[in-house]
Structure formats: structure tokens, C-alpha cells
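Board notes (copied after class):
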Amino acid sequence: MTTQQQPMPADTGTTQAGRTSPDPRSDGTVITGRSPARMAWRRIRRDKVTLAAFVITVLFILIALLAPVLTAITGWGPIAPDGKAIDPDTGNFPRGALGGVSLTHLLGVEPGTGYDLFARIVYGLRTSLFVGFASAVLSTVVGVVAGLAAGYSGGWVDSVLSRVMDVMLAFPQLLFIIALTPVIQNAMQTNSHGGTDENLRLLVLVLNIAVFAWAYTARLVRGQVLSLREREFVDAARIMSAGRWHILFRQLLPNLWAPVLISFALAVPQNITTEAALSYLGVGVIPPNPDWGALLSDASQFFLQDPMYLFVPGVLLLMLVLALNLLGDGVRDALDPRAARG
């Protein structure tokens, strides 16, 4: 009597030891899972506009970091005047065409002072990026902590913090910073010459912008926490006697990185614009620190005689803010789970 040989079972990717291995495709490739961060980065790379904005943003950051090297190559610093580049007979306007553009001064010089415009712009970029990123980091940290506390605690804590958020959101930010700056300036220490220390003014400017910006992040985080605190993993942590701090910073906070990152990315260009507006109005960065807003304010007086003085910093500020805004929009689209997959 012959026995029929049973067919061998199809290979399901299980090894003899009982362990499962990745299921290969017919062409030999192995299917691997992707983390949310890798999926978001993949979508950003496929978006040409966002990728271009990312490249431009990185380029601006590198220029700001390498400002001492770049100005050393040209031989002119941000507060080193060149008296030979301006003509006293024409009211100290730059010699030559296009605002004094030459091999020595790549973007010309400032009318009246003879400062190298390239050095002023490069160092002014450092000022704008420092204020924009520092105030965004500070407002994001405060907003995340306040949003976590309000959303998780509930009760009177949520009521008080929510009312504070409403009040902060109702303030006209620019007007109140303009009004508060002279008051804070009078209370600040003065330097040996009787004036306000320029570095301390930068710190106060960062604090002023952050004070009026944290409520946006806090409101966003609070709404997310109100939803997350009812999830099963939070209940499981409570059952296992996890403390409040563990639940807040080990369970809830890791699930908030996407909206927090989006909020931060959108806050940076807004803070840079606010800083430039304050400096343009004369209540922002003070000399000798160079700043694009102050450059635009000074250049507006010489527009008819030296249009390059206004055109160059104006176009660069537009490019920086536009690139940061487009990058923030791209990050939001890449991290939003409801967005259409590319």
C-alpha cells in the first residue's frame, strides 16, 4: 500500500527555531516598517517646495554661523567704517555705482557711515535668527508645560490657566511690546557710557516676544492632552501606580512631539518678523548690534539716492521669512496624519 506524500507547506517566513523573519517579496526585497519620523521626512523630500525651503533655511543658518569667517575674507567687520568708500562732497554717499559695490565691498557700503553692507547683513542675520529661535524655544517650553498642566489637571487649574491664555491671546502683541520696552529699558542696568547694554537688550527682546507667544502653543497642547489623557495607555499607567510626572513627561509628552514641532516651526518666522518690525520702529535691537529691521529703517531715508541699501536687506528678509513659512507649512503637512499620502 502506497502512502501519498503530503505537500510541503508554503514558506511563511518562520525559521526552524520558531522565530519569525521578515516576509520577503517575490523580487527578494524585504518589507520593513517605517517610523512616523521617517515617513514624515520621506514626504518632505518628495515635496519640492518644502525641500527648497529647507535648503534655503539651512543656507541662511550656515551663513549666520560662519559670519566671522565670511567677514574675515572680505576684511571688513560690521562696525568697521571705510571712510574712503564714501564721498564727503556728495553728502557721504557711497562712491561708485550700486551703492559702492566693489571687490572690497561685495554689497556696497552704508551711506553716511561707510560700514560694509555685507558684514552688516551677515551679522544682522545672526541677530534675527538668534531672537527668532531663542524666543520660539522659550515660548514653546513655557507653552508645553502650561498646556500639559491645564489639560491633564483639569478643574480649577485648567480654568485659571485657560483664562490666562485667553488674556494673553487678546493682547495686541506688537503694541504692548513697544509700550513695555521703554519701561523695561529704564529698569535695566546701564553700561559705563550711560547707555543700555546691547546684549541685555537682546535678552529683554527675546523675553518680551516669548511672553506674548507662549499662549498659542499652550492652547494647542491643552487640546491634545484633553484627548490623550482618556486613552488606554494612560489608564494602564495609572493602574500600575505611575506618578503624575511620569504620566506627563513619559506618556503624554512623547505623543505631542508632532504638534509641538509644527508650532515651533511656524513661530520662528513670526518672531523674526516681530523682531524686525520692532527694530524698524526703533524699540528693538540697538547699536552697535546690526539688525535687518534697523537696516531697513535707515535705508528708507536714502531710497531715492541709494536704492541698493534698501533693496538688498529687504529681499533677503523676504526670502528668509518666506522660506521659514514654507518649511513650517511643509512640516505641518508631513506630520499631519489626516493629510493625503504622497
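Comment from the instructor: The beta strands are 86-87, 93-94. The longest strand covers residues 86-87.
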